[in-house]
Fold these 4 entries.
Entry 1:
Amino acid sequence: MAQSTLHFAVGMAVGTAAAAPSLVRRIRGRRRTARCFLRWFALSYGLGFVAVIPSLLRHAGVARELCMRWWMNVFFLFPLIDRLQPGGMVLGEAAVLMLFGLQYVAMLLLIGRLERSRERETGAGM
């Protein structure tokens, strides 16, 4: 059984990949990005939660055999990952940490860019 953090990381990665093109377009176009960041965070954490639903069902008492059926692959390949990656606690924690770090660094870069553009507009940096 793979650790829930690994499944959560898979869901977060899918959410990040889905939101990345829109976010990059907004940043390059120098348009407002707050809603785009919010959408990215909601999508990545929401899909992370969706990816652990079979694990939550197992902890709620649903039989393991039911949670490992082929149709549970709808939850971001839950049974497949469970079969291929036994354990996975360190891998899952590292992946979640990297995704959290990516979000944090992206926000810092955006704040820095906004600060630089504000300085250019006001001429305060001279």
Entry 2:
Amino acid sequence: MNPVKIGNRLIGPGHPTWFVAEIGINHNGDLDIAKKLIDVAAYAGCNAVKFQKRTPEVCVPAEQQGRMRETPWGYISYLDYRHHVELDKDDYNAIAHHCQEKDILWLGSCWDEPSIDFLEQFDPPCYKIPSACLTDDNLLRYIRQTGRPLILSTGMSTVEQIDHAVQVLGTQDLIILHCTSTYPANSNELNLRVIPRFLDRYKVPIGYSGHEGLVYTTLAAVALGACLVERHITLNRAMWGSDHAASLEPQGVTKLINYIRATEVSLGDGEKRLYPSEVPVMNKLRKDRH
């Protein structure tokens, strides 16, 4: 299995876990919040931050566009709400500059073709294909034409649907993420043993996109072979918005990164050996019988 190179890092078995802090729309359309979340990710030791990019008129079904809802911007239509949480070109220029200052990569998950065209101007290191778009063959073909590495999320999908998406995309520079698309997800629905099965089935690097409110489950994913981890982050889980409750706060993401690095070290290389530190204990406690 060949690793996938994103930026200056190789992602795959035998390489350190690549951690993506999913900002998504947890910035609530506010550039200052986006910058603070980038700072959180950089301080915690994340490798990249990820945003979500949509063209509201394309992504929001016609029957939902006029539905009204309470928001921080008042009682507005769902379409208007989607516009409020989108960042514009000036915002992304500022994000790119801020990430460069913090020495952290940034990427986006694109929900439609115009969003891919929009992000292409920023020369992203890769793209994320969200679970909701896994069955959109036209989008898969369009994003593959960029020639960039791709990260495919597989929430709310059957194995047959994933097989088809992989057939459309091909396996070159492809990373697949196991995912359960519930926000927040219950532990009994995470099904982490899918990770080694995906490794065997697709022969590409496999990662984990988690939406649970816990951290130890992600460590289990790493132990099972996840070489990329994506978790949502927020400044405060009580903030307004659909994804905050399934996100990690600053202290949580910092702890998780440290736990992942400790887990990687503790996994070792799989070769059983007698360590020099054990010898004094062995000499004291063991009685050989012949």
Entry 3:
Amino acid sequence: MEIYTIKKDAKQAIVELLNQTIQVEYDMILNYPRIIENLVNITNIHDEQLNKDLEYVGKASVQHFGNLSKVIELLGGETVWTLGTVERLIDVQKTLGQQLAKEKAAIALYKKAIQLVEKNKVKLKGKGFLDRLLGGAEEVKAVDAAYVVGICERHIIDEERHVRLVDDSMKTLKALMDRKAE
């Protein structure tokens, strides 16, 4: 079985892309509970499926954050995340539109990270079973390129689902608001 690792000089660039993904998308993590609270208690919209979908996206985003942090550490980096100003939530539709754009931007960043891994992977020098079992120094520092690509690919699939859920949530919210205005 051939194992590929990532060139040392490319790891930092991949870490930077993954940190950009965190920064672009995950400043919205705090907004999902706020959005649901706004819909239920201020706008008086009690749509169980809408709330369930928004809660799902929020929870999945927290899991992604954790997964990316682990990959960043594995690559020898440090997770960098700063929380911007949390604006007052006035227009849920606008906030969801911003999140939709961020979900799409995250997909593009994951794709760039995959391209960078693919471009910079190198075959791990074969060692015997006993050397691997004892954990040679080279093997300990090696990062399995397929693992990093796999995480990014899973996140792309999840983000594409998030795009659909946020888009559907926006349409549902519009229909509910229109019905309420009648």
Entry 4:
Amino acid sequence: MSFLKYRGDSPGNRPLTFSTPSKVGDAPEKRAKVKRDLMAILDAAERYLGPQELDQVVRDHRNARKGNTADEPLNKLLLAEFDAARAKGRVDIPEFSWGFYERHGGQSAKAVEKRLRRLLRVREKKAELDRKLRAALHGPSLIGTK
């Protein structure tokens, strides 16, 4: 990436590198150098990408490191069973969660309830965004009006 090649505009600056020292030779001076190099790289990236996109990249990097990936098959099964139960009538979420836990095990009933509530909240947000988009698309046209 050419925007990370040199620190500053003067030709006397050395190329940017980001190599971390080994744990054996870890000294405060080396840590300070790594921080300076990282700050220079982040400054260049912020100038190129902008602050919002850089924040998103950092957020994505942090989330990827967490390792908390969604268990999609379990989420689909949970929502499918909840929708089937809701089709039969009113559903008490704590009771449903306890029954799901007894049938499938894995997490505690409280964890199943929290997962279900989170999935329902995400589903409702998506539906709300979809309703707003459809309303905006099917609204009155501003073209040709005076």
